[in-house]
Design a protein that fits this description.
Helices cover about 25% and strands about 25% of the residues. It is an alpha+beta fold. A four-stranded mixed sheet has the order 2-1-4-3.
């Protein structure tokens, strides 16, 4: 099983965790609401997990342009 983190705005691969067993509490998933969990985490048939996150570059862009937070994606 692998956990893949990709930026939800630009698609950049932020990182991957390869592990046979990881608890959601270790990853902080338990702190997400049901809605956030549904929007951010996708479970694949092969057991992999894909997590939408934000990369440093997109976070920096959002910091400079706070009104962009209202948009699901600001990079097309």
């Amino acid at each position: 099983m692998s956990i893949h983190y990709h930026c939800r705005h630009c698609g950049y691969k932020v990182g991957t965790i390869d592990s046979k067993s990881v608890f959601s509490e270790e990853l902080g998933f338990h702190q997400l609401s049901d809605t956030e969990r549904h929007e951010m985490i996708a479970y694949q048939q092969n057991g992999d997990v894909h997590v939408k996150t934000i990369c440093e570059d997109c976070q920096e862009a959002l910091d400079r342009n706070p009104d962009w937070h209202e948009q699901e994606r600001f990079i097309q």
